[in-house]
UniProtKB/TrEMBL annotation:
Source species of the chain: Sinorhizobium americanum
InterPro entries referenced in this protein's UniProt entry, alphabetically: KR_dom, NAD(P)-bd_dom_sf, SDR_fam, SDR_oxidoreductase
Protein name from the UniProt record: Short chain dehydrogenase
Keyword terms, alphabetized: Oxidoreductase, Plasmid
Gene3D superfamilies listed in its UniProt record: NAD(P)-binding Rossmann-like Domain
């Protein structure tokens, strides 16, 4: 397919932030783009068709994939972007809250992937880009459950890529650093807050707001997604933004004690 006919792309969580920027970037690159949101919304003005999908619901996922196939006849690219955050001490969340974040960030990815794989297999062609995070590679104090979901996506994506590669399908990871998105809209707070964490949780929220304000624009991540989507021989993972690349190198090449000390300093935790 030439640049004006890249193929059919489906982007989850495309109503705002990274998902919206990615949908727009793919459209500019020549894809016919379908985006999803949990609530009804008008099609985006530059030609992105918006559909309703709740990635935690099997029937909703199957329905949106069937809708795209009925309209476009194929799905060449799936961007698994939908996700939620959770900020607080790990023990401040009940098991039910932990299950809820995994249901979106991990099982939502698995549902969407399982739904598109049969069509991609019939086509003998397809690519799935999973939005991970640099927190999928490093510890994340007061983001333990969120980081756990991203660690899970890392392992799932790399393993699945080996399983489906001979079917003409590739699975690729994109790892953003901190991105300038709406903090209040994208973060969940613990459902059983404990007094012992009040001070440090407040500090963690303050730090998060500071680094989000200085983070990469969503368009930086979107450009990386487009590169990962179009690469003839894709790498397993792509970091998005300078800071993400630096953190990845830090984890790979520096001694564990140095990484530990650096993480505590960055998170303003005592030695």
């Amino acid at each position: 397919m030439n640049k004006t006919e890249r193929g059919i792309a489906l982007v989850t969580g495309a109503s705002s932030g990274i998902g919206l920027a990615t949908a727009q970037a793919l459209r500019r690159d020549g894809y016919r783009v379908f985006g999803t949101s949990r609530k009804p919304m008008l099609d985006i003005s530059d030609g992105i068709t918006m559909l309703i999908c709740d990635v935690t619901d099997d029937a909703s996922v199957e329905s949106v994939v069937e809708e795209v196939l009925s309209r476009a006849g194929r799905i060449d690219l799936l961007i698994n972007n939908a996700g939620i955050g959770l900020l607080g001490g790990a023990e401040e969340s009940t098991t039910e809250q932990a299950k809820a974040i995994f249901d979106v960030n991990v099982f939502g990815v698995i549902r969407m992937t399982n739904a598109v794989l049969p069509a991609m297999r019939r086509q003998r062609r397809g690519r799935i880009v999973n939005l991970s995070s640099i927190l999928g590679l490093i510890p994340a104090p007061y983001n333990a459950l969120y980081a756990s979901t991203k660690h899970a996506i890392e392992g799932y994506s790399e393993s699945l890529d080996h399983e489906v590669r001979t079917q003409g399908i590739r699975i690729v990871l994109v790892e953003p650093g901190v991105t300038r998105t709406s903090f209040e809209e994208n973060i969940t707070r613990p459902d059983r807050p404990l007094d012992v964490y009040d001070t440090v949780r407040t500090g963690a929220e303050r730090l998060m707001r500071e680094i989000v304000a200085k983070g990469d624009a969503p368009e930086v991540v979107a450009e990386t997604v487009v590169r990962a989507a179009n690469a003839a021989s894709p790498r397993r993972r792509y970091t998005a933004g300078k800071a993400a690349g630096q953190v990845r190198s830090l984890r790979r090449f520096m001694p564990e004690s140095f990484v530990d000390k650096s993480l505590r300093k960055f998170n303003r935790l005592p030695d």
